[in-house]
Amino acid sequence: MKKLVSLLLVVVLLLSFALTGCSSSDSKMIGVAMPTKSLQRWNQDGANMKAKLEEAGYEVVLEYADNKIDQQVSQIENMITKGCKVIVVASIDGTALKGALAQAAKEDIKIIAYDRLIRDSENVDFYATFDNYLVGQIQGEYIIKDLGLESGAGPFNMEVFGGSPDDNNAYFFNSGAMDTLQPYIDNGQLIINSNQVDMEQIAIQGWKSEGAQARMDNLLTAFYADKNVDVVLSPNDSLAQGIVASLKAAGYGSADKPFPVLTGQDCDTTNVKMLIAGEQSMSIFKDTRTLADQVVSMVSAIMAGETVPVNDTETYNNGVKVVPSYLCEPVFADKDNYKELLIDSGYYTADQIQ
Ligand code: BGC
Fold first, then answer.
1. Which of 2, 105, 203, 260 has an alpha carbon within 20 to 30 A of 123's alpha carbon?
2. What class, spelled out in words, does domain 132-286 have in CATH?
């Protein structure tokens, strides 16, 4: 009888171990919470990170939240229950995770904010991203070079779009680009006919293509009935897709209405095709392999109790503290360099962008 009871105990213990995945003390489990599957980049980010973390010997719980805040919160809570030691979060709304992160901190779980800073919480341990201000700067510099602004060309008609207002990155992209372009706005080489430059006027909720398309439609109707728009500053590719749809519907892409200089970010396959077709001028390339490698180094250092590699301890104040960050360097892709950057490097196959 005694033997039977202890046998039963062992079975129960083994079962609970199997159900929770591991005992929390020797867990090698890492949580990865991504915002949505609807944008190509997050699928790549998630897949890359899972592969690299597994290669490094970790078990990975990877979840996508369909851009729903509640869903992301419960996914993080689940990761905590499962005994994850580190949770990597690309947040949907950078201000909505305070409660979940406080719970994680109680369990001594470390949080790495991925790509987007998590705001208003003291329980964000590290931040891994591409340099968001530099993203905007490179977009601005591309416009300056493409239009020949340094040699006095112009004036050109420009419109400006902003990213989602709940995404901390959106403000960095905007200031990087606008700080770079401001001298040419001030001296009249760039004319913003709508006068809309504040984030309240230009931000597109949820980074939605349809939102960008609707705003571009409105701008074209209200301000461009008798002139062409020559430049559109778009912070990313999903917005650029909507902007191009609107431009096409208004007859752009013809000899008397050439496509404007148009920026973007992410090098989504759809947009790389748009670069090749001459509908979009450039896109920022943020190689998710680089960021995933960085996150794996951070996770490994945390797990080994070693110093976590960071290269910026000043820029990213989340409202409560400055979060130690590692900033990777973005580059731009356009029709002249995309082959080398995206195909020769093995990021995409030639088939993917045909
Ligand atoms: C990312 C961009 C992305 C955008 C929309 C931003 O936080 O940094 O790469 O295009 O979100 O998902």
1. 203
2. alpha beta
